[in-house]
Amino acid sequence: MSGHDKSPILTTRQGHPVIDNQSLRSVGERGPATLENYQFIEKITHFDRERIPERVVHARGTGAYGYFEATGKISDEPATKYTRAKVLTKPGHRTPLFVRFSTVIGSKDSPETARDPRGFAVKFYTEDGNWDLVGNNLRIFFIRDAIKFPDMIHAFKPDPVTNRQEPWRFYDFVQHHPESLHMVTWVKSPWGIPASYRQMEGSSVNTYKLINPEGVAHLAKFSWVPKQGVRNLTAPQAAEIQAKEVGHATKDLYEAIESGNFPEWEFCVQLMEDGEHPELDFDPLDDTKRWPEDKFPLLSVGRMVLDRNPDNVHAETEQSAFGTGVLVDGIDFSDDKMLQGRTLSYSDTQRYRVGPNYLQLPVNAAKGAQVRTNQQGGQMAYYVDQAGPNKHVNYEPSSQGGLQEAPRTGRDYHQWVEGHLGRYQTTRTQDDYRQAGERYRTFEDWERDDLIANLGADMQACPEEIALRMVWHFWHCDPDYGTRVAQAAGIDIERAKALPPLPGKPAPGQRREGPTYTSGRAEEAAGTQPGQSQPKAAE
């Protein structure tokens, strides 16, 4: 597992050498990703097709129906100040929904006591069409660029030779990605094993934008807070449950709803003015970071109640399909690179896994709005979307009674985008270590003890070079954190501390120095430094 200088060169399926496998092509460091990301599209679309028929990730899951009831307010102000999405702005209005809870890495029949993030996907059947909010229970993720996702999942999945989840594979990936330390600290603590789906939080993880009727945008993160309280399990508690039941969380949710003990969550949003926010030590678009709640409080916008179990697990829960690109007017994308990559990947996965007409299935079909498209054909089509007055016309525009475009409902949201096209990594990396250290210090004693025990056992199962580097990382998050992991694993803390920083990575607590790739020649000709924007013309 050494001798990296002699490793073969990574290529695309076309045989092209891969020079940068860490960054999407984007317009500037914070700008949107571009459609001609051939390397990424080849990588992610192949990844989406790796398994059939179960999901590649989130295979083990359960679901339920319910409703969302909006308050019509955000921070004691009318919600219309921030958004024109009707699902959030009508006081007391109830929107039907379907939720699927899941684990991430395990197969369809894996135990629900696994130490793993939990998926928390909600499909709102709004009057303006469906809105899918697809996230997890921990508000953050392991990586901040979607091009890394297939590699991350491969490292976390079973070894292709032994077919076992090997700790060294997980930490071999993590040691090269300091942004993962925050999520590792959460997952390896009791928060990595929720006691039940009813007693866990949910989050969008990614940053979205709320758009108001005037076309003004605010950055937004969404969270679900369980009114049943939050409860997690230690490793021994989880082992005791798993010895008797592999689907305890599915059983708990089903029986609670059947008995009329309907679980409920408060739906909250965190808001931030749209912009780069250079005053923060992290980029608000970075999904490996939490927005501090003392600066960006959780503001209640409504509640969710689950009150009905599915009639058939396969037809509803397993064929339910979610996508981060399924938004309604008044809720929009940010340039979060994980969100942009997920938006292509999720829907592409469903078209492959369930079929191109997956949106015709009752659990996925819009209920609050009529569906009229000119799309037709494909596998498993069992009805034709309602056409216009003239059924002979399946195209647009037409003067012969076909479908027509909808009128605009508010002022368009316009985002100014400029920058040099290239592959960029964020320069704001100080909080890669800081937020993980803060999380360690805010844990209760029993949570810290469980975290250290779990990490110590993992380090003992890793090659020495990986274990030393991971202790180095933990020590830079917090000296006590690293020291206790070293003691639990029998590692010499001084040897770990003496390691040099990772090649090509900023020292812990420092900003990365500029982008990793620029075009160079064009910038020299323009008289700018690599990575700098050219002056915008006078308007």
Automatic annotation (TrEMBL):
Gene3D superfamilies from the UniProt entry: Catalase core domain (2.40.180.10)
Residue stretches making up the Catalase core domain: 11-404
Chain residues that bind heme: Y346
Entry's Gene Ontology BP terms: hydrogen peroxide catabolic process; response to hydrogen peroxide
GO CC annotation terms, alphabetical: cytoplasm
Enzymatic class: oxidoreductase
Protein name as annotated: Catalase
EC number: 1.11.1.6
UniProt keyword Iron present: yes
Residue ranges, compositional bias (Polar residues): 529-539
The family this protein is said to belong to: Belongs to the catalase family.
PROSITE patterns: CATALASE_2, CATALASE_3
Region (Disordered): 496-539
Record bears the keyword Transmembrane: no
GO molecular function, one term: catalase activity
Obligatory cofactor(s): heme
Active-site residues, as the UniProt record annotates them: H58, N136
Annotated keywords: Heme, Hydrogen peroxide, Iron, Metal-binding, Oxidoreductase, Peroxidase
Source organism per UniProt: Siccirubricoccus deserti
General function of this protein: Decomposes hydrogen peroxide into water and oxygen; serves to protect cells from the toxic effects of hydrogen peroxide.
PANTHER family: CATALASE (PTHR11465), CATALASE-2 (PTHR11465:SF23)
